[in-house]
Amino acid sequence: MRIGRCLCGAVTYSYEGEALWTGHCWCESCRRATSSPVTTFLGVPKSAFSWTGMQPKPYKSSPGVNRWFCPECGAPMAYDNDKWPDEIHLYAATLDDPHSFWPEERYYFGERLPWSPAEVDPT
Ligand SMILES: [Zn+2]
Ligand SMILES: [Zn+2]
């Protein structure tokens, strides 16, 4: 079982098993949602996932898309999209043990900012 939490610790989660996929996203929507030049995700099945502390709040960032955040500290926690109804996409930096994680894919690399850290390019 893997666990994760927000900055203040009010919102916590756990999931069983392995991530379906992992990767960095450089898209503008993620950038603005997290105020960071790159966002790192892992996708897990909703059936293996549960919120274990305070429920996060959703922000509808585009049609069919929720970006979940901690109502206490504001930390971005997760993304879900009607396109993938069985998945929840967690921000990898919220993992309790992020060192045991490695991102494999890259998404929207063409949208990256010229000053985005080069070392996050996994290729
Ligand atoms: Zn919090
Ligand atoms: Zn994105």
Tally of DSSP helical segments = 1
Gross morphology: globular
Spatial extent as radius of gyration? 14 Å
How much β-strand is present in the residues?
35-45%
User: How many domains?
Assistant: 1
Low-confidence stretches: none
Q: What kind of sheet is the major sheet?
A: 7 strands, mixed
**Mean of all residue-level pLDDT scores:** 94
Please give the order of strands in the largest beta sheet: 6-7-8-9-4-3-10
Distance, first to last CA: 29 Å
CATH topology, by name, is Metal Binding Protein, Guanine Nucleotide Exchange Factor, Chain A
What are the distinct ligands in this entry?
zinc ion
- Quickly name the level 1 CATH class: Mainly Beta
Structural class: mainly beta
Task: Report the order of strands and helices.
Answer: EEEHEEEEEEE
Helical content band: under 10%
User: What's the total count of β strands?
Assistant: 10
CATH architecture descriptor text: Beta Complex
Give short descriptive properties of this protein.
seven-stranded mixed sheet; single chain; mainly beta; globular; Metal Binding Protein, Guanine Nucleotide Exchange Factor, Chain A; 10 strands; 123 residues; binds zinc ion; three-stranded antiparallel sheet; 1 helix
